[in-house]
Amino acid sequence: MENKDIILSAKDVEIEFSLRGKKLKAIRKCSLDIYRGETLAIVGESGSGKSVFTKSFIGMLDSNGYITNGEIMCDGRDIAKFKTEKEWRTLRGKKISMVMQDPMTSLNPLKKIGVQIKEAIELHRGVKGAEAKDIAIEMLRKVGIPEPERRYNQYPHEFSGGMRQRVVIAIAVSCNPEILICDEPTTALDVTIQAQILDLIRKLKEELNMTVIYITHDLGVVANVADRVAVMYAGQIVEYGLAEEIFFDAWHPYTWALLSALPQLGEKGEELEAIEGTPPNLFVEIKGDAFAPRNKRALAIDFVKEPPFFDITETHKAKTWYLDPRCPKFERPSNIVNYREIIRRKVY
Amino acid sequence: MVKYTLKRLLHGIITVFIIATVVFLLMRMLPTDYFFTEEQLMKFTDQQKEAALNAAGLLDPITEQLGRFYLNTVKGDFGISRRLQAGQPVVKVIGQKVAISTKLGVVALSISLVLGVIMGIIQTVKKDKIPDHIGTAYTVFVNSVPHLVSYSLILAFGSRVLNFPAIYSSRSHTILSCVLPVTCLCLTSIAGYGLWTRRYMVDELNKDYIKLAKVKGLSSRQIMVKHILKNAFVPLAQYLPLSFLETIGGSLLVERFFSVPGMGPLLTDAINRYDLNVVQTLVIFYAVIGVLGVFLGDILMMIIDPRIKLADREGVR
Fold this sequence. Notes:
Chain A has helices at residues 50-55, 85-89, 113-124, 129-142, 148-151, 161-173, 191-208, 219-225, 243-248, 253-260, 334-337, 339-347; strands spanning 6-19, 22-35, 39-43, 65-74, 77-78, 96-99, 179-183, 211-216, 228-233, 236-242, 310-311, 317-318. Chain A is α/β, with parallel strands linked by helices and 348 residues long. Chain A has a domain at 106-176. Chain A has an 8-stranded mixed sheet. In chain A, a hairpin with a 2-residue loop joins strand 4 (65-74) and strand 5. Chain A is globular and about 70 Å long. Chain B is mostly helical. Chain B starts with a helix and ends in a 13-residue tail after the last helix. The interface between A and B is medium-sized, with 29 and 22 residues.
């Protein structure tokens, strides 16, 4: 990263949900700096907390969830302390915006899409009426919707899934947000459309100078778009670094497991790699490394003591005892060490 | 749209036609004694009865009678009432009562709609807080306590403490005497509209597009007014025309309770007294209301919800 300007910095964030009287610890001490202008991907399996963690940046946690600890600094303010809607509204739309997973349900079915875009523009840009409408049409054109003047007056059901996601993106970026959170923006879309949407987001990022955070479990998407990757497991970030470093020099056993499970790496005719077991129960206190019970090569200490982050490079850190100098000598799985080789052979 | 409307109207007419036919045939299966007023039944000899039946065409083959019935119905001639108000045309018997029931019903429904929707909105905004619980308690109370009990409470309180007339009167203080019946009518329907408004609004509240609206930076109030209210109203709107038309039929219980000379008790009275023409006419009348109400509901929905194009594709784009 040539530019080290931190735009948002989360430190030791803890998030709890109260469910039927019980407390669920969804995020356990997560820290992450987000740099201006970068594209960051947060990956992890369902329930790893990637969505919850990111939603807390914009105050979109479900009503039974709250930040119990830590701080999230943005523009010199600690947004983890935000309580009222009024405080959040100083941020939403203008500073941070979000594209959600399912374009089929993200738009109000009874309102013309133009009006829904205009709504955001009137809210933040201080223009009204015809002027706002012109900007909205311009936005539609920008996200690649043909005949924007005519489309402006149509309802969501007259659009296909991909087109709707374009409209959602137009709404999200219509107020020039500095940070755009994309919560699995392509999961609900047809494979052929996915690449188009990713391209669109990339193009808009350049044009509008945005910082983009992808939440995804699709490593293919990550490889395509991300500058940096953070891997989450059981409510914690376990490894982060430049995309290159994560793909070709991974150190956390969970990252290995994720990489090995990529279908592109399997041998034809052989069963795909899968991670055995299930993620831990977040209702109970987790001891040691949360991934240890599923890790065939876990060390004895993994079950007792939680590992700290170890630096691999200046940008690359992993939370595993393997990196401790006291760790007995061991070899990483061969497919991880030779990842670059395998990819080159398989994909190209 | 036009084509669809015409098609639906045709379906409606066919439905009413079938109902009318069935009812007419069922009525004709009853003994012909019911053709006479009670008085005539005592006095007439058998020959006189037969002559009278013959004159009225009731001994003709059933197909001929049916034909005549269709013709008269289309002309708006529903025959005369023989028992309830002997000798009066059925239309006139029903007409007087319709006016009273509709007047009470429309007033009550309008009040309940406004109050019920407001109650639902407050419950949604204050979801899981005290106002919401009060609203729910009211709804549960009204629906679980037998209506006669709650009506008696209203009657006792209204007439004893507040001095409203306990019985409907068309001569003096008509408006004042309507207060208690209207209150009783509102009691249940406010609860109904409140319940459904809350339910539909809470449904909308949890949808994704509300999240996007929030992310945009809209305030809760703006989201409530600009997004949720209209969307929640769509499913409610579908039943509005029917509800309004149904007020014509009056409420059996309330009208009995306050001696309102309305439509409510008319059908049961007519059946009890074997006033066949009145029964027959009322059934057709209610069928028309039902068919028309549902039809208008669909049209209304189509107007507010752009997704609903009930038409067979005719160049809609």
